[in-house]
Design brief:
InterPro entries: AB_hydrolase_fold. The chain is mainly α. The protein is built from 26 helices and seven strands.
Length: 782
């Protein structure tokens, strides 16, 4: 018999006397907390779990299941160390573009029955994620190979300013036909510099592999697929088990990144060998090497184009040796390329830039075409099942994918321009980075200016809304003495809380600005060097002067951002509060599995959701008691995901209590395929009962708006905040405005929990009889 189906000590049956156990399983929100704070008791004990995530109880409640009480026992599931516990995660901010493009995969519109279109949407996002990997690796090659090894090390004055490059610099005797240092040959300098992006790729591979072993390898509870196709895919047994796909994407992206470095090393050598008087042997070898690189790149792209996630079942297999061997094959080709480029070629000198302009232009064009195709597919999916609450009318996924590509481009161009300024200074000794990267760096100030205009507009709108709210606050407290300062504060907090609902506008403005500036950057790069005559020429000169100013300012802004990034990272390494603040970013952004980019930060829910599911299923089976799953903020999203993963027989025995919940306000609007109206309605039908608390002063939580008229209302009336307008006998001191915190301090919380337990009691099914040693099921269906 399976161990999960054996009857443990303390198993209750219908014949047991006394009150049935009642449990409230608390799940905290973003930022993390301690079990002592969650349970309101300095003495807590760990019931189950480890140092990363665990379930705690008060010390006095450790054996409460054996002697049930009249009030529910509280347990606290603490998962903050999954995101904000490790100081090294502060440095994961560099992976932000990868995380953003991974979010685009989950933002598709809901489209029941449109499997082919859904697969096409996922394929386009995966290809966009691949171009992002290639872009950032190409930017690293631009800095290490082009700016440092090719340009600066090839110019004596530049290398003299940076003594650490002296061993790479050709001597004057070498230019006259003599012998320089062994590393002074251009191909050998490129091969040595290629170790920098190769080391970066190996670091990304290592981090992805380590987190894959720690997160994607946690098996969720096995159960049969849901027959209800209108529900959420989060109920599928394999949704939180993306082990196979992440391994495949990791192999393909690592191979593509290494092949990008190999191409950057091979291209200048091949261009020199293709000259009419070049050696025939090296010319043939260059074509063979090029064909091998293209063939292996085609294999990597094919691996990415294969079917994506297997959500209908627990896919425990891994892909074949060819896919798993992609990184080793690419590494072997890189080594061969370094040997080929390092071969002595008389007369080969480094001059100008490496041939990188066409590559960056092609990448930018490919990203634009992929985003356009993604928008067409997303719009078609939205038209099939329109949802007026969906963010940007179904175009949020393409918009976020475009922002990810733009963020990668701005980072690439800004860093390249900043390194070029550092190497060259004001001497104009070096040609600098490719023209397109320079133009991309120039887009940073206009983007910041657009954001500033948007912030000013939102500030004016918030001020107007605050004036309207002041009248509403006055009418809500008739008969109480007027306190203008108190009224102003409450109205201002309410108005500020509505800014969350303006996020689609912010994303739309950023997307439009990015699209226009990207087109300008591409056009400017193509027009560089083609100066017209006459009035058009004077206009071109003026535009060129403005662009150069913007480029210089963008370069310094990137440098300032890098300094702030390093400072923030060092502070987070030493300061737990700062580390927790950075962890909030990952709490929100890394809820979703890595379905598009394997180098994105890992999905903590692939550990947290199985933890909650196993705890609820085993406790209800062992005790036969009533359970309230209580989630705050992001914890309510984890609670809903865990409830979806429960077998139907267990799901119908629990009550769901959410407060400060972004389930509909954020997740329902931005991820309609998984938290849309039909998905939330299905969850409402499946759980025994559901209650939701929110405040008008809460900038994150809100009503869940379950579209189900056949069941009791889910959303409670908005809670009063503050609990008292002025001084009262119950509140002799001014009551604070709680906003998103301390929902349990409101008396309505205890009343709602009691109501859910009372509704749960008559619907609780009797405990199923135990079977013998034949291995039959006990207490749940699979």
């Amino acid at each position: 018999m399976d161990r999960a189906q054996e009857r443990p000590a303390g198993q209750r049956t219908d014949n047991d006397a006394g009150p049935e156990p009642e449990l409230e399983l608390l799940v905290h929100g973003v930022g993390g907390t301690t079990p002592e704070e969650m349970l309101g008791d300095p003495r807590t004990v760990r019931v189950t779990g480890d140092d990363t995530a665990a379930v705690f109880r008060r010390a006095e409640d450790a054996e409460a299941d054996e002697a049930p009480r009249d009030e529910p026992v509280q347990e606290a599931y603490v998962w903050s160390n999954l995101t904000s516990g490790d100081s090294s995660r502060a440095l994961w901010l560099v992976l932000l573009p990868f995380m953003v493009v991974n979010l685009a995969h989950w933002m598709r519109p809901a489209a029941p029955g449109r499997r082919r279109a859904v697969r096409l949407y996922g394929l386009l996002v995966r290809l966009a994620a691949l171009t992002l990997t290639v872009l950032l690796v190409a930017a690293a090659c631009e800095v290490a190979l082009d700016l440092v090894a090719w340009q600066c090390a090839g110019v004596h004055d530049c290398a003299h300013r940076h003594s650490w490059l002296s061993f790479l610099t050709p001597r004057a005797s070498e230019a006259a036909g003599g012998h320089g240092s062994w590393w002074s040959l251009p191909g050998r300098r490129l091969g040595l510099a290629a170790l920098v992006p190769a080391a970066l790729i190996c670091l990304l591979w290592y981090l992805s592999h380590r987190t894959w072993s720690a997160y994607e390898s946690h098996r969720p509870m096995a159960h049969d697929p849901e027959p209800d196709t209108d529900g959420s895919a989060l109920a599928m047994p394999g949704f939180w088990y993306g082990r196979r796909l992440v391994a495949r994407l990791r192999a393909a992206h690592t191979a593509a990144a290494l092949l990008t470095v190999a191409a950057a090393v091979a291209a200048p050598a091949a261009r020199f060998d293709h000259r009419p008087d070049g050696p025939a042997a090296l010319d043939v070898l260059s074509w063979l090497l090029t064909a091998a690189l293209l063939a292996w790149a085609a294999v990597a792209v094919t691996a990415i184009c294969r079917r994506g996630r297997s959500e209908t079942r627990l896919d425990q297999r891994l892909d074949g040796h060819l896919v798993r061997g992609l990184p080793l094959g690419a590494l072997a080709l890189l080594l061969l390329t370094m040997v080929y480029a390092g071969w002595a070629r008389p007369g080969w000198r480094s001059a100008g830039r490496l041939p990188g302009d066409p590559a960056f232009g092609a990448l930018m064009l490919a990203q634009g075409l992929l985003v356009v195709a993604l928008a067409v597919v997303a719009r078609d999916l939205y038209r099939r099942s329109p949802d007026p609450r969906a963010g940007m009318r179904g175009l949020s996924g393409p918009a976020v994918a475009l922002l990810a590509c733009a963020l990668g481009g701005v980072m690439s161009g800004g860093v390249a321009q900043r390194v070029a300024d550092w190497l060259d200074g004001t001497r104009a000794l070096l040609p600098g980075p490719p023209v397109l990267l320079t133009w991309q760096a120039s887009t940073i100030p206009p983007v910041l200016a657009a954001l500033l205009v948007l912030v000013v507009g939102l500030g004016i709108r918030t001020a107007r809304l605050a004036r309207t709210e002041r009248d509403r606050v006055r009418h809500e407290h008739p008969g109480e003495p007027e306190d203008p300062g108190r009224t102003h504060t409450i109205a201002q907090v309410r108005a500020m809380a509505t800014l969350t609902d303006r996020v689609p506008l912010v994303v739309a403005v950023l997307t439009a600005t990015t699209l226009v500036l990207g087109a300008v950057a591409l056009a400017g790069a193509l027009a560089t060097g083609k100066t017209p005559d006459g009035a058009a020429g004077r206009t071109y000169d003026a535009v060129q002067a403005v662009a150069e100013t913007s480029q210089a300012l963008g370069s310094w802004l990137v440098g300032l951002g890098f300094v702030l990034f390093v400072t923030w990272g060092r502070r987070a390494y030493k300061d737990a509060s700062a580390r927790r603040t950075i962890g909030i970013l990952w709490d929100v952004g890394t809820f979703w599995p890595r379905a598009a980019h394997p180098f994105a930060p890992p999905c903590y829910a692939e550990r947290a959701v199985p933890d909650l599911t196993w705890r609820m299923a085993t406790w209800t089976r062992r005790t036969g008691g009533r359970l309230v799953l209580s989630g705050h903020s992001q914890g309510s999203v984890l609670a809903a995901a865990a409830a979806w993963q429960l077998p139907p027989s267990v799901r119908g025995r629990i009550a769901l209590l959410t407060y400060g919940s972004p389930l509909e306000r954020l997740y329902g609007r931005w991820f309609p395929a998984h938290f849309g109206p039909s998905a939330l309605a299905a969850l409402h039908r499946d759980v025994a009962c559901w209650g939701n608390l929110y405040r008008r002063t809460d900038p994150i939580g809100g009503p869940v708006r379950v579209p189900d008229d056949t069941a009791p209302e889910v959303d409670h009336a908005p809670l009063e905040d503050p609990l008292a307008y002025g001084r009262t006998p119950a509140h002799p001191l001014p009551a604070p405005i709680l906003g998103h915190s301390d929902y349990q301090a409101d008396p309505a919380f205890a009343r709602e929990r009691t109501r859910l337990l009372n509704r749960l009691r008559p619907k609780l099914p009797g405990q199923r009889p135990q079977t013998g040693a034949g291995g039959g099921r006990t207490g749940q269906t699979g």
